[in-house]
Amino acid sequence: MIGDRDTATALIAEARRRFAEASLADPATDARVLVAGVLGLSLSDVLMRGDVAVSRKEAEQVREAISRRCKREPVHRILGRRAFYGLDLQLSPATLEPRPDTEILVDSVLPHLKRTIAEKGSARLLDLGVGTGAIALALLKECPQARAVGSDISEEALSTAERNAHINGVAERFETVRSAWFACIEGRFDIIVSNPPYIPTGVVAELDPEVRDYDPLAALDGGQDGLDAYRALSAGAGNFLEPGGLVAVEIGYDQKNSVTALFEAAGFCLIEARRDYGGNDRVLLFTTRNCCAC
Ligand SMILES: C[S@@+](CC[C@H](N)C(=O)[O-])C[C@H]1O[C@@H](n2cnc3c(N)ncnc32)[C@H](O)[C@@H]1O
After folding, report:
1. Of 26, 97, 204, 294, whose CB has the highest number of CB atoms within 10 Å?
2. CA dihedral defined by 41, 43, 45, 51, rounded to 10 degrees?
3. Which atom of ligand 1 is least distant from the CA of 250?
C-alpha cells in the first residue's frame, strides 16, 4: 500500500498469502496471473510498474477475485478468458477451459493440414465437440487457406466459439453446427479433430474442485468406461472423411490401447501417437487403412 492506496505488487503479495493459507497448489503463479489479469496489466507491466497505486475500485475488484479463487474457482474462469496457441479465447459456463496439453493436438495436426493445403490449395476441417473453438480456431489462424466446421451438442458453446472466431479474426472461414457427434454433419472433410469428454463417469466426482465444479459435465463425462465418444467418432468418421483423410483425437492418459482398438476395428490405422508435457499418452492420429503402409 502507498499511504491508503494499494499497488499491484502489494495486492499480488496479499493474494499469494491468502492462496497459500487456502492450500492452493501454486499460490505464486495464481496470484501474479489473477491480479495482473483483473488490473488489465501484462506480467511485464507488473514488473515495470507494479508500485503504481491502483484505484479503490480496482483494489476491491482484485480482492473479490482473490476470494473467488480461495473458493477454488479457477483463475481463468474468474478472468473469463485464457490464451491458447496464441489466441485470446473467451470462456463461458458451457465451455471447457482449454488446456495447454490440447496445444499438442494442434501441433500434431498442423503439418498434415499444411501438406493438404500444399497439395489441394485449400482444406476442410471438422472439430467435433468444439467448445470455445480452441482447436479449430488455432488451426484456422495458422492456415489462412483452411476452412472449418465446429460442432457441439451445446448451443451456448457454439455461441462462445463463434464469438471467439470473431475476436481472433477467422470468423469468415468458420461455421458452427449443433450436432450430437456426426448426427447433423454434412459433407466430407480432409481432417477431423476432436477432444471429446473422456473421463469415466465414476471418476468425475474425484476430480479437483477446479475441474469438477467449473468445467461443464458434458465436457468431462465420457460414460461408464470413458470411451463413449470414441465409439461414436470411430464408427462415423469414415463416412465424413475425404480419401486419405486424417482423424486426430485427444485421449485420457490410459486410453491409447482401447481407443486405437476402436479405430482399428473401424478400418483406421494409427499413424502417430504423442505424449503430453507430463509424459502421458495424449494425442492419436489415424488414417484410413488403405491409405497407409500397414
Ligand atoms: C473436452 S471438451 C473439448 C472442448 C474443446 N474442443 C477443447 O479442446 O477445449 C468436449 C466438448 O464436447 C462436447 N460434447 C459432449 N458430448 C457431445 C456430443 N454427444 N456431441 C457433440 N459434442 C459433445 C461438449 O459440450 C464439450 O464442448
Report:
1. 97
2. 90
3. 8
149 is in an annotated binding site: no
pLDDT at 1: 56
Q: Are 156 and 131 in contact (CB under 8 A)?
A: no
pLDDT of residue 80: 97
- How much distance in Å is there from the Cα of 153 to the middle of ligand 1? 7
What is the distance between the alpha carbons of residues 126 and 108, in angstroms, rounded to a whole number? 15
For ligand 1, whether the C-beta of 13 sits within 6 Å is no
Distance 143 CA to ligand 1 centre (A): 23
Residue of 208, 239, 212, 233 whose CA lies nearest to 285: 233
pLDDT band at 51 (very low <50, low <70, confident <90, very high): confident
List the one residue out of 94, 99, 85 whose CA is nearest residue 208.
99
Q: Is 280 annotated as a binding residue?
A: no
Distance in Å, CA 279 to ligand 1 centroid: 24
User: Contact at 8 Å (CB) between 120 and 151?
Assistant: no
151 CA → ligand 1 middle, Å: 8
| Contact predicate 12/35, CB 8 Å | yes
Q: How far apart are the first and last CA of the chain?
A: 66
Statement: residue 293 has pLDDT above 80: no
Mean of pLDDT values over 180-193: 98
What average pLDDT score do residues 180-184 get?
Answer: 98
Locate CATH 1.10.8.10 in the chain. 6-79
The class level of CATH for 6-79 reads: mainly alpha
More confident of the two residues 2 and 150: 150
- Shortest CA distance to 220 belongs to which of 209, 263, 37? 209
* Residue extent(s) of CATH 3.40.50.150 domains in the chain: 83-291
CATH code of 83-291, in short, is 3.40.50.150
Residue 152 among known ligand-binding residues: yes
Q: Residue 203: CB within 6 Å of ligand 1?
A: no
Mean pLDDT of the 245-263 span = 98
